Amino acid sequence: MNANEAILVWADEYSRMAAVYEARVVPRFEPVARLVLEAAAPRSGEMFLDIGTGTGLLARLLAPAVLPQNVVALDLADEAISVGSYRAGDAGIRNIRFEMMDSRNIVYRSRLFDGVVSNLGVPNLGYDRTFAEVHRVLKPGGRFAFSEWDAREPEGWGTVFDLLGAHGTRSPSKGLAQVREARAVTRGDEEARALREPDRVTAALEASGFAQVEVSTKSFETLFRSLDDLLGFVAAWGWPDRELAEMGPEGRRAFDAALEGRLGGRLGPGGIADDWTIHVYTARP
Q1: Which of 31, 135, 145, 224 could pair with 39 in a Cys bridge, judged by C-beta atoms 3.0 to 4.6 Å apart?
Q2: For residues 16 and 105, what is the distance between their CA atoms, to the nearest angstrom?
Q3: Global confidence as pTM
Q4: Is-cis flag, bond preceding 240, omega within 30?
Q5: Across residues 62-74, what is the average pLDDT?
Q6: With contact defined as beta carbons under 8 Å apart, do 215 and 198 qualify?
Q7: How many CB atoms are closer than 10 A to CB 223?
Q8: How far, in Å, CA of 189 to CA of 208, rounded?
Q9: Does domain 3-284 fall into CATH 3.40.50.150?
Q10: Mean pLDDT of the residues in the chain
Q11: Neighbours of 94 (CB within 10 A)
Q12: What does the pLDDT read at residue 225?
């Protein structure tokens, strides 16, 4: 499996889980999206592009600030686009145009947008092409604001990932086998790992023509009510849901026992806290 094939597998997974992702993941990502919004500093009448929009959280936050202008929101996951359109319409937001599009090949003319944003949506593979495309479609004086994870994986979901690998089925379905292969491509790719390192992201932005890059690092303490709440959050990303579904009763019992052993001691009256470190970038041509 090559990088392009892996990206399409991930897009299919996000499509499959779009409604669950919107319910279980998006509310926890809103504080991060608000940091990106602050960094982008949108103004009335400016045209913005949101890449890797997912179900449209950042686009929905951005849209009222740029009225009467539009936000164009792109993603490769068609069902995520559908969920995003529904959520925006249900909220009475009419100035978002959702489109199924690869952010590595933005089919818009050069120097069109006042700003480009992304909330944890820059593609892991081929993001140098995304940066070049963003630079191309930005107006002179525009800005590109986006968030990305730190290289240190949060302990909570990092533990879940480890245990899924240890207790997952040895006879996966075709779908799970494809997802495992896509994950191996992503996690084994040096470029993908570099996306979590500010110095290397800054260098990639500068290589794409951005002359001014600022990085702000923020930490969040995210609370999950229980281990099941944490597991539901992680499963909403797609591949963990497949792993759990195919684990079998004996494997699932062993997984649950191991998860309790690793993280149960961290449960307090309010649940279990997970520390997230996020980098917010602001780049100008």
Answers
A1: 145
A2: 23
A3: 0.92
A4: no
A5: 96
A6: yes
A7: 13
A8: 20
A9: yes
A10: 93
A11: 11
A12: 92
